[in-house]
Amino acid sequence: MTRLDPAVRRALARIGFYTFIAAITAFFALPMLWLVSAPFDATPGLTPSWPDFSLKNFRALRDNPYALRSLWNSVLIAGGSAVLAVVCGALAAYSLSRVRIPGRDGLLYVLLLLSSIVTGTAAMVPIFLLMFQLNLIDSRAGVVLVLTGGLLPAAIFILKDFMDATPRSYEESARVFGASPLQILRHIVVPIVRPGLATIAVWAVVNVWGNFLIPFILLLNPDKQPAAVVMRTFYTEGGQPNLALISTFSLAYSVPVVVMYLFVNRRYGFRFHGGIKS
Amino acid sequence: MADLTLTGLSKVYPGGVRAVDDLDLSVVDGEFFALLGPSGCGKTTLLRTIAGLETPTTGRLSIGDRDVTGLSPGRRDVAMVFQDYALFPHMTVQDNIAYPLRIRGVGRAQRHDQAAQTAAGLSLSTLLERRPAELSGGQQQRAALARAIVSRPALFLFDEPLSNLDARLRLEARTFLKRLQRDLGVTTVFVTHDQAEALALADRIAVMEAGRIRQLGTPKQVFHRPANLFVASFIGSTPMNLLPGTVAGESVRIPGGAVRIPAAARGLVTDGDEVVFGVRPEYLTLSGEPAGGAIAGTVAIVEDLGTASLVSVEVGDVTVAVTVPEGAEPDIGADGWLTPAPGRALLYRAGAGDLIAAPAADAPAEPAAAP
To answer: Which residue of chain B is at minimal alpha-carbon distance from A170?
Structure first.
């Protein structure tokens, strides 16, 4: 066997490499393609195919009594949790960053460690009992509270980093001019850590938007269930998945998150103006 | 406009560090006052205590005829310029300057008006819409000053006002700052570790060490008659020569010879006293010829300073620095004789480090009159 010319070998290696990349890309792109093509296909199937263009599937979405309402529920629950997590997280992170209390770092690490358990499978039964005793079963507010509790430790942990990175001299400067603590928070701290707050808000929305377990357990009335829970009920009378509805619903379910991400990134994207000479 | 009085002020941090130790001080109305000292001497803590950012452990603090010891910073009628300027990064220069007025509830149009006026006085008019990050160091400093001025405080506090500027700009800013303070006539306390800055700017200087004031006086007093060895070695761009010696009759015996006892100390020392003879390099003359009362040595190093040269002369096993005018530089290795200028040499007690001089000559510093 003759040895290959190195140039040929290099070319073959390139071809092999790109083929491999293409295969991987296709693997991940197929579901995306389905998500984009199926809603517009007159006869949606489980495989991506060139759509026989039609908008009739969206009628199914509009006519389903739960579909649009569940999306609104998702917006309520995700928005509520994000606002609560950002507000409470920012206040807690600011205090933890500025006030020295013994065992502060230990507290933060323990909280962070436990946070994955709090809203996870392990805590399902106690959380259900807790909400039952608080009379918060089948209440969207209850879901918001539980989800916020799960988000807060990580939110505090991340926001504290942003707070720590904000020089104190900004606040001291404002204090000497007579600003009250709330004014300092509103005029100085919040605008400066805004990229951090935006990050936490987006992260919270994305987390809650896709959460199935907690709302599934705590909400009984389908009128109150968010999109992630309701989707599992979309079957035809024959017991077949209602692909017309599922495909359009999936698209409607994904678009808000993407739009929110683009909006937040544009408006509050990562930037820091500087202003402390170092 | 007001004077500032500190009575028995102490600041002890948890852990027992006495940053400020039982300090009495009064700054008169309109004075430009420097707190000078090495890092860790408590000068910044003292400034922050005056601002109200730190609470004194004991003692009283009054501005004008108001006791402000227990008041929050915002109610003391002071304005502070921080070392890093602390301009709010998310606000324009105009909003930054107007911020103190915003806190006081002045309407937007009026405060922007006032900010623009103040900015014009500091040649910032063309920069009002910029953000702090878009300004040079000097412009940032002027913006921070404008923000302090706009609230018309009774007292200015500057923390290391020039240390964030590069060397050339620093001189320019120093002159600017001195003129500004003179024009405004507002009592000003500033902190610096740079003795040249303190000498150039201040009407009076408090030299601090370990939470205490080691000397209080005008720049001339502090420079010409340092009250102790600490101040003597701290003040002066070229450090003062401090030569340990022993009193013997009319002279002080030092390692490389003997010098006459300075006039001010005559009659205050007795034979055998351990003393330190101090003379600044600027007040020594170097000659190639032996002279009476001169210190003999060998030229070791010559450093060119531009208009003068700094010459290190080895006298016995100590090195004495002397400045010589340009063109008069000696050769390395040449013999040289050093003569102190009359009335410029000082004598300190070894150990305690106090200046030996008749008390009359060391009268307490008169506060400078308000301009």
So the answer is: B86
